[in-house]
Each structure stands twice: as C-alpha cells, then as structure tokens.
Write a structure and sequence with these properties.
Elements lengths: L58 H13 L60 H14 L3 H10 L3 H8 L17 H11 L4 H18 L6 H10 L11 H12 L3 H11 L4 H19 L16 H18 L20 H11 L16 H29 L10 E6 L4 H11 L7 E6 L9 H14 L7 E4 L4 E4 L8 H15 L10 H7 L20 H5 L3 H12 L4 H5 L4 E6 L2 E6 L14 H13 L4 H14 L10 H9 L6 H7 L1 E3 L6 H12 L2 H12 L15 E4 L9 E3 L4 E4 L5 H13 L8
Parallel strand pairs: 1-2, 7-8, 8-10
Antiparallel strand pairs: 3-4, 5-6, 9-10
GO biological process, one term: protein polyubiquitination
Catalytic activity: S-ubiquitinyl-[E2 ubiquitin-conjugating enzyme]-L-cysteine + [acceptor protein]-L-lysine = [E2 ubiquitin-conjugating enzyme]-L-cysteine + N(6)-ubiquitinyl-[acceptor protein]-L-lysine
Protein name: Probable E3 ubiquitin-protein ligase HECTD2
C-alpha cells in the first residue's frame, strides 16, 4: 500500500501505539502493509474531569444508574427513551487514553509486521433474511396496509447481534473480505435501512436500541474478527445517535471502537474513506455534536455526572481521529479539514488545555490539544498569541531582573524589541538590528524610522513590514522568483556565500505571527508544509530541516506548466525513451550560465524509460522543491523558528500557518460593513450609503483590490473582518480627487462625492491603479 496514514492530521502530533498482542500475529497470506494509526493506550482515564481518576463504571452499572432517570421520560415521543435492563456481571472495559505528543513530524509509509492485523476464523453467519429489494418492498406494503410487523421483525432480528448484522448487510455471507479496501458491506442496503428507521413507530426504534445494547454487551469480549469490525462500522452510522437520549449507548459504542487494537483501526480508516461524502459528513457532525453537548449540555440531568463518564469525550475524539485520518487519505478530501472544527471549544479554557498537554505529556490526562484537528484556527491563534505573550513577559521580566541585579537603572526600552532603521537602507539596517538583538526577538516589536518623529502605536510596525516585504520580494532583488502562472513566489536556486537575508525573511514571518501582523506574501502551500518539517527545531544540528515529501501536485502549485509536462510523461503510452529522449539530469540557468545537475549518480548516462519514469519524476520534483534550494530554505526555516519556537506550532496544519501569516482568502464585505468605524462621517450619511451600495455590488476581484488598497493585503485576519479595525475618514478635498488610503492604519480617506456614479468611478480608478501597497 502506498498511502501513508498520519494521525490525527498531516500537520499535528503523531501517535505511536502499541502493536497488537503477539498471539494475534497471523497466518495472513495476502495482506497490504498497514500504515500507522493512532490507538488507545492504558494511561489516563480522567478525560475532562481533572480530579476523578479511575472512576470508570461498567456498562451494566452505567445503564442501571441511568434507568431510574429515564423512567419519567418513557411516555415522550422520542424514539430513544426506553428503560434499560439491569445487566450484571459484565466485565469492566479498559480505560481509554492516547499518546499524542511527538516532537518530530514523521512520515511512515509502512508498518512493521507486528502491526499487521491477524486473521481470525470467520464465524458461520445466519442465513441472510432479506435483500435490499425485499426490504424496500416490505416498506412499500406498509404504506398501504399500515402493518409494520414484517419491518419490525427485520429490525428485531438484524440488530440482535453482530452475526445477524453481518448476515443482513454483508454482500456475500460466505466471503471473508479480509482487505482494507473493501468492507464487504452493502452500503446501499445499510443506507436504506437507516433512512427508513427514523420513520418507523417508536416500538421499532426501541427494538433497534435494545438490540444494540445486547450486541455491545455480548460481543466486546475477546479477540475481534472482521465481522465484528463490520458490525461496529454499521452501528456507527445509526442516525438514532443524533438524539441525546441515546448518548449512553453511543458512548459505549465509541469506547469499544476507540479501544480496538491498532490493526483493526486501519481497517476502519480505509472503510471510512469509502463512504459517500454525505454519510461521512454525518458521522463527523454527529461526533462533534456529541462532544459539544457533553461539554455544555442543554439539560444536564439527561446525562450521567461527568465524574462517571469522563471517558466519553476522549472516546469520541479518538473515533474522530480515525475519520480525520480517512479524510486525509482521500485526494481531494471527502470534506474540508475545517469541517472537523468544533466551535464549542472556542468557549472553553484553551490555555488550560494547552498547559495540560504541555505538562502531562502523552498518557496522564486528556487534552483537546492531543486532537488539534478539532480546534479552529481562530482558537489556535489565541493559544499561540497567549503563549507568545507569556514568553514575551518572561523574557522582559528577566531583562528587568538582570538590570536591577547589576544595580543599573531600569529602562522601559528593555521590555521591547526596538528596531531603528533608515528608509534608504531598510534591508541592511533591519538585518543588522535583528542580528544584534537576536535575544530580544520574543519581545514586543517597536519600530522607529531614523530622522522621523512619532511613536509606534502599531502603524510604524506595519509600515516596516510592508516596505521590507515589498523590497525583498521585488524581482530585481533576486531572492525570490515570481511565477506568473501560479501568482506566487518561490526561492531562487542561485548559489551565494551568505544566506542571512533568507533568514531575515523567516524572522519577519515569525515576528508577524508573534505580533499578529498579516503579511502580503504569496508562497505556495508546500512552503508551509516544509516550514513544519519538523515543527520543532531538532536538537541535532546535523538533522536536515525543511525537507518534506513532495509530489507533482506540489510542483503544480508553483510551476503548473512544468508539472503538466511531467504528468504527460507519466501517462505517455508510447516509448518514453525514444519519444522524450531524456536522462536523469536537469538543467538550470544561473546568471546567464546553463548548469547541469544529475538527479542520481551517473544520471547523465541513464535514460528515462517507461520502467523508471516514476523515479525520474519523483527525483526531479524533489530536486526542484527540496535539494536545489536547501540552504536558502534552511536559513528561512531557522529564522522563522528563532521567533516561533513553541510547541503550539505542533497544533497547526500547513494551511493554518498560511492563514496565520497571510490571512484568510474568504471575504465577507457585509461583516466589514458592520464593523467599520467612521471619522467625519456617520453610517447614515449619503456618501457612506453610496459607498456600501457600490462595494457590496463589486465582483470579488474588485472587492479584493479595495481590501488590498486600504490594508496592504487582500486577505482577512484570522479573527475575521472585525479584526481589521477598518475606518473610513472624511477627506475635505475636492470631489474631483481620488480616494486615499493609509494602509498602516487600515484607513480609507473618502471625499464627499455627490453621486453614486461619481463615487464608483473614482473608487475603481483609485483601487485599480495604486502602486504596490498604496502607502503614503
């Protein structure tokens, strides 16, 4: 198997789990290699209850405790309210926790033989009761007769046990289906049964829930067969679990799935990725709702005390991790990674979660930071900002203590990273200042332009960033190459003696994140993937940094034409050696001189053929995106991490780093209208009404130009439009003048135009013809 499973997400800490027990190694003959997957350990059981360790009840005692509370609700119309039997003598399940913190980001393409799932004898299944056609015919008969007996009997039999579930929904009851790519389940039949279930009478729905209880109690002991996994896979899709009154059953189902061995999780992951987008999204939304309502229940009396079910949320988070891994295996993903965000977590104490993760590590206490894919980028920004602020405070405090201990008079300037630069020598002065003040990089940034009066209240800092980025990324400067086809910059492969300016760019990006400044930088997504490879600077300086697995898709984001040519080479049906006449060698122009590089030893003498073309494309892509720019990117990497050296980076995906640095591309001009401040105008003034009528009617490209004209970037900060602090000021000049922008303060100076037509004309001219960042 070629795909690598990374858990919980490509940009988050990986989990290394224990291998399956020795006695479960198997006689498996034709099994794919399984990539690693997160699995439960035997550590923390406290969940979100910080003080109640080990208080984990058995399934039977849980149901017994809940039964009296549910009796009063029996007469409701909800399908899930039923009296559970007092089942005794059920062995307590092992607690759930997970290991997630890992300093190095790794990519593992295959697992050891110990991690392969064992093959257990498949049980003899009952005779398949009905086909999907038979079931649908029974449902149609109900519409005319009103008699649910046949349908009720089907549900009663099917959900009574795991073997019956397999007998009903397995494509072929005699086939084993011991592969990760095919669950052997008739998905169409499962969907039909569940779609019908919610429209059946209450006694039918209660029958299904009682059957699930019996199945879970009966089947969780002992080693698992693939039929057991199929049953879990089917039960997890039950839409009845959307109802809070079924959450006790749902929690135990999740727990049993979460505590499966790693090899079983591999099967589930690959089966999940075969679900339709609709069904997959329903699973994710159901789990997110389960977590949200356990955290903030609308009716707390509906649930057992948190001290008795602290494992609910860890179990749900673990199953979400399996779904997240499945989603990342599909290209394109089944759903956007943002659909895994749980906005409820924005309202909990995120720093407590972060400190728990930091202080207790892998196996003592649960933290949502162990599953960062559920934390929104806005919440992660809060964690990073507060972690940054704490580091700033600690460093400033230490500077103050050092001054006092040496009996020197404290100076408030020691609390800041003070940059004094000349506009005429912006790059060199900035480089010198940052080099001399390397120990102060984590202090609050203050910028002063030599020979200019004024205090930096944020405007000078932003201007310094904008001017510096504008100069460094200019094509004449030679550090970066702008690719018109992809509208992005990439590192120049030209060799030089000093790469300190690349380090400067990395420091600038780090300072921007650290000081909540949005930069107008256009790097391709693979740049941020490289920036997190690894997310923490390795202690061994000999370990390469900024190297990651790259593909033709990554190259396409920078050089689409070249990537298209390589893709054609891979799909060419003729004789590659004769038609392309290429060798394992690449040519690059450096200062007017064509230089050649071998992709492998003796590459100039090795022809590209139909047999080795995949290797050629991979080596070519790796050379362009990794090897040819290694020194440049390594300097850039170390510059960024010299400022942002924080474990909080381990929580981020590459896409989220890009959003933190450059902002989000999603514009909401109505939100901007609601948050705009006015100076000299009121929002009811005719000119302002004209302005918003025009702007809200603009196409997206003109809206982006307006945002770029007024703020220096056409992207939105992580916190949304409200974080822009956008202001429209009255410009008491002739209405023949164009609008003026102060990008350092996100301010638009607008003359009082007398008509909407005049305003629209002047505004379009102004935003379409401004140079660079439109600085004044």
């Amino acid at each position: 198997m070629s795909e690598a499973v990374r858990v919980p997400s490509p940009a988050t800490p990986l989990v290394v789990a224990a291998a399956a027990p020795e006695e479960r190694k198997g006689k498996e003959s034709e099994r794919e290699k399984l990539p690693p997957i997160v699995s439960a350990g035997a550590g923390a059981t406290a969940g979100l209850d910080r003080g109640a360790k080990g208080q984990i009840s058995t399934f039977s005692s849980f149901i017994s405790a809940v039964s009296p509370k549910k009796e009063a609700a029996e007469n409701r119309s909800s399908p899930a309210h039923l009296v559970f039997p007092n089942i005794k003598n059920v062995r307590e399940q092992p607690p759930i926790c997970l290991d997630v913190r890992q300093k190095q980001r790794t990519s593992m393409d295959a697992s050891s033989s110990e991690m392969k799932a064992p093959v257990l004898p498949e049980p003899i299944l009952p005779i398949q009761p009905k086909t999907v056609k038979d079931f649908q015919e029974d449902v149609e008969k109900v519409k005319s007769s009103g008699d649910w007996k046949a349908v009720h009997d089907f549900y009663l039999t099917t959900f009574d046990s795991f073997p019956e579930l397999n007998a009903a929904f397995k494509k072929d009851a005699t086939a084993s289906f011991n592969t990760i790519e095919d669950s052997g389940i008739n998905a169409k039949f499962v969907n039909a049964v569940y779609d019908t279930l919610l429209n059946t009478p209450q006694d039918v729905q209660k029958t299904v829930l009682k059957g699930i209880i019996n199945s879970l109690l009966r089947e969780w002991k002992g080693p698992r067969t693939k039929d057991d996994l199929r049953a879990y896979f089917i039960l997890l899709q039950n839409p009845q679990f959307n109802n809070t009154s079924t959450y006790v059953i749902y929690a135990h189902l999740l727990r049993q799935i979460a505590t499966l061995v790693e090899a079983d999780h591999h099967f589930l992951v690959h089966w999940f990725k075969k679900l339709s987008q609709k069904r997959f999204k329903q699973l994710v939304e159901r789990l997110l709702q389960f977590i949200s309502l356990r955290l903030f229940p609308a009716k707390p009396e509906e649930f057992p005390p948190i001290t008795k079910c602290s494992w609910w949320i860890p179990s749900a988070a673990k199953v979400l991790a399996l779904l997240n891994t499945a989603n990342n295996l599909v290209h394109p993903p089944l759903i956007p990674y943002t659909d895994f965000y749980n906005s409820t977590l924005d309202h909990i104490d995120l720093m407590e979660e972060y400190h728990t993760w930091q202080n207790f590590g892998n196996s003592h206490r649960f933290s949502f930071c162990q599953y960062p894919f559920v934390i929104s980028v806005a919440a992660k920004k809060i964690i990073i900002q507060r972690d940054s602020e704490q580091q700033m405070i600690n460093i400033a405090r230490q500077s103050l203590v050092d001054k006092v201990s040496r009996r020197q008079r404290p100076d408030m300037n020691i609390l800041f990273l003070n940059m004094k630069v000349r506009r005429t020598h912006l790059v060199s002065d900035s480089l010198d200042e940052l080099t001399r003040k390397r120990a102060d990089l984590k202090k609050k940034l203050k910028v002063t332009f030599v020979g200019e009066a004024g205090l930096d209240m944020g405007g000078l800092t932003k201007e310094w960033f904008l001017l510096l980025i504008r100069q460094i990324f200019h094509p004449d400067y030679g550090m970066f190459t702008y690719h018109k086809d992809s509208h992005c910059h990439w590192f120049s492969s030209f060799k030089c003696d000093n790469y300190s300016e690349f380090r400067l760019v990395g420091i600038l990006m780090g300072l921007a994140v650290y000081n909540s400044i949005t930069l107008d930088i256009r790097f391709p997504p693979c740049c941020y993937k490289k920036l997190l490879s690894p997310p923490i600077i390795p202690s061994d300086q000999n370990i390469p940094v900024g190297i990651c697995n790259v593909t033709v898709d990554d190259l396409c984001q920078i050089m689409p034409e070249l990537a298209h040519g390589l893709s054609e080479l891979l799909s060419h049906e003729g004789n590659v050696e004769e038609d392309f006449y290429s060798t394992f060698q690449v040519f690059q122009e450096e200062f007017g001189i064509i230089k050649s590089y071998n992709l492998k030893p003796g590459g100039d003498k090795i022809s590209v053929t139909n047999q080795n073309r995949k290797e050629y494309v991979q080596l070519y892509t790796d050379f362009l995106l990794n090897k040819s720019i290694y020194k440049q990117f390594a300097a850039f990497y170390y510059g960024f991490h010299s400022v942002c050296a924080s474990n909080a980076l381990m929580l981020l995906r590459p896409e989220e780093v890009e959003i933190l640095v450059c902002g989000s591309p999603d514009l909401d001009m109505h939100a901007l209208q609601r948050s705009t401040q006015y100076d000299g105008y009121a929002k009811t003034d005719l000119t302002i009404k004209y302005f918003w009528d025009v702007v809200l009617g603009f196409p997206l490209d003109l809206q982006k130009k307006l945002l770029h004209f007024t703020t220096g970037s056409d992207r939105v900060p992580v916190g949304g439009m409200a974080d822009l602090n956008f202001k429209i000021s009255k410009n008491e000049t002739s209405t023949n003048c164009l609008p003026v922008a102060h990008t350092c303060f996100n301010q638009l100076c607008l003359p009082p135009y007398k008509s909407k037509k005049d305003l629209k004309q002047k505004l379009i001219i102004g935003i379409s013809n401004s140079e660079g960042f439109g600085l004044e």
